């Protein structure tokens, strides 16, 4: 019985591991912490798996657990985030304004997204994953209106980071 | 905001660059719960070490060493203390190496071996602490009875009763009983402290065993 449960869990996680990797990519900055976070999320998923009742899709449930784990981990290591990063981004943005090449703009956007707070990152992540506001709201446990308001604020925030 | 659309496009494009883990790699990940348990055993042993050492420093002033000198247990206690510190440091080192080893283990067979090693080290550690405690307690009791001021009174009382042998048998019996009670309490403390962690390790070990079959 237990063996079956393990088997189905690992198979499902293997098939949908991209979601976890993407969360890791957004919340970490190097390969080592990426791997650590992946393992942490895998363990949290496995712990919660017996209680997962299939009322939601496996992936929806995965998004929720993965983001929750990432946010919790992020809060634990919050003090480690260097502040000068922001300054260097601002500087780089000014320099890049002169040649608006697409690739550079994208890099800039990624950096700007990395500057966001943990919850904002989760919202942007779900947005990038093409989730509608209903799904975003239910995944993060907030109301749809709240999700819209927050998303607008994030867009403004990004705008100020990119065009200071 | 067109920038976000740009980002979304790129985000999807980068999907192909994501790392990919195999079934076995993920399997091993969820079975690596032991790592954090062994880490806690290591931390708790250090906390415990610091706790007992501070307790020792706080309670032992020059007076208590003087008293030990007077009951001829001074060198005995010094020797015992040095011995216990050396062995405790060795145990902490062992816990540390176990923790390091388990962090870098990738096969379930090796993981099982490390779990067994850790369990054995914890058992040895607990027995060592209990023995040191017992020996020092018995030593102190013997010293007090033989050379201490209370001991003199007891000796006089023994002469007065007329049943000297019986009296000493009772005294020894009481000493052993009180030692046993103290040991029992300490043993209970260790059961609580490490018992829970060891139980989890055992569960993980069993899970790994199932996987090997």
Automatic annotation (TrEMBL), chain A:
The keyword Protease does not apply. Keywords: Sigma factor, Transcription, Transcription regulation. The keyword Transcription regulation applies. It holds the Pfam family Sigma70_r4_2. Residues 107-158 form the RNA polymerase sigma factor 70 region 4 type domain. GO terms for molecular function: DNA binding; sigma factor activity. Residues 14-79 form the RNA polymerase sigma-70 region domain. One of its GO terms (biological process) is DNA-templated transcription initiation. InterPro entries: RNA_pol_sigma-70-like, RNA_pol_sigma-70_dom, RNA_pol_sigma70_r2, RNA_pol_sigma70_r4_t2, RNA_pol_sigma_r2, RNA_pol_sigma_r3/r4-like, WH-like_DNA-bd_sf. Transmembrane segments: none annotated. It comes from the Bacteria. Belongs to the sigma-70 factor family. ECF subfamily. PANTHER family: RNA POLYMERASE ECF-TYPE SIGMA FACTO, RNA POLYMERASE ECF-TYPE SIGMA FACTOR. This is Sigma-70 family RNA polymerase sigma factor. The lineage of its organism: Bacteria, Pseudomonadati, Bacteroidota, Flavobacteriia, Flavobacteriales.
From TrEMBL, chain B:
It comes from the Bacteria. The chain crosses the membrane at residues 40-59, 71-93, 125-145, 165-190. Keywords: Membrane, Transmembrane, Transmembrane helix. This is Uncharacterized protein. It comes from Cerina litoralis. The lineage of its organism: Bacteria, Pseudomonadati, Bacteroidota, Flavobacteriia, Flavobacteriales.
